[in-house]
User: Which sequence fits this backbone?
């Protein structure tokens, strides 16, 4: 079950970005929050299809300002792996369960 808290690390050219994903699923829908030391945002358009979790979020990301992102992660027991797509490119993401 993918529900719970995950520590996600996004590998960007400006260095690794660590955030906590708190996700809950109901059927094929996924809801939750993405948070780090700068604050918290709700995930939107969340879906769980088999072992693939997809969602979107909007956040202030320096130096871009307010930016929309699309995330696609594959769930494999206690790990997540995938990509975050932003206007400026696509970045690898790894995740481990924290709760």
Assistant:
């Amino acid at each position: 079950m993918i529900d719970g808290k995950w520590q996600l690390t996004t590998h960007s050219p400006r260095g690794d970005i660590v955030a906590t994903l708190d996700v809950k699923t109901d059927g094929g829908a996924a809801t939750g929050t993405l948070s780090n030391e700068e604050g918290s945002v709700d995930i939107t358009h969340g879906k769980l299809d088999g072992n693939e979790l997809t969602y979107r979020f909007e956040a202030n990301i320096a130096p871009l300002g307010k930016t929309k992102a699309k995330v696609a992660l594959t769930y494999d027991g206690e790990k997540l792996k995938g990509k975050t797509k932003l206007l400026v490119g696509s970045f690898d993401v790894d995740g481990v369960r924290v709760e």
